[in-house]
Amino acid sequence: MPETTHRPTRPKLYVIKNPRRLPPPHLSTGDRVMLFDGECVLCRRMIQCLIRIDSRQRIRLATVQSPPGQALLRWAGLPVDNFNTIAYIAQGQVSVRSEAFLQALNQLGWPWRALAVMRILPRGLRDRLYDGVARHRYRWFGKLPAGTLPPDDKGGNRYLDHGQDCPKSGSAG
């Protein structure tokens, strides 16, 4: 019988399942949360747009610098001090990079859901484009001072820390 080589399967780096089966901290059943860099001007603009579009408040928010954001990063096994992507957590799964963006768009309904057509692009290409922007985001769009409050959520309770961000200094995003 010929010997077959067994190739170890690599875990997907884009959707991370929590092997501990613990629920994510700060979230109720059915909650979805977008983690973003509270010091990144581009991220702030993206979140301002999300707040405007998501009138049903389907997606909760947290900066990666906030205590709830840090707890969720630890829960997901993601870096807490040098975070170079957005993360989207829903139903115990964590999506990062372009997949996080597309997962969030999927919750927003028409016409935003139509942007999911970007999935026809290979994930590697989408993520290379995403990484290029993420790597240069501070130079191209600017960086806010540590401690800057996140965008106003129009009186809702979208932020896990109620918008009272207590950031650490450092790179995140």
UniProtKB/TrEMBL annotation:
Pfam families: DCC1-like (PF04134). Residues 152-173 are annotated as: Disordered. GO terms for molecular function: protein-disulfide reductase activity. It comes from the Bacteria. InterPro entries: DCC1-like, DCC_oxidoreductase. It comes from Sodalis praecaptivus. This is Putative thiol-disulfide oxidoreductase DCC. Residues 152-165 have a biased composition (Basic and acidic residues). PANTHER family: DUF393 DOMAIN-CONTAINING PROTEIN, THIOL-DISULFIDE OXIDOREDUCTASE DCC.
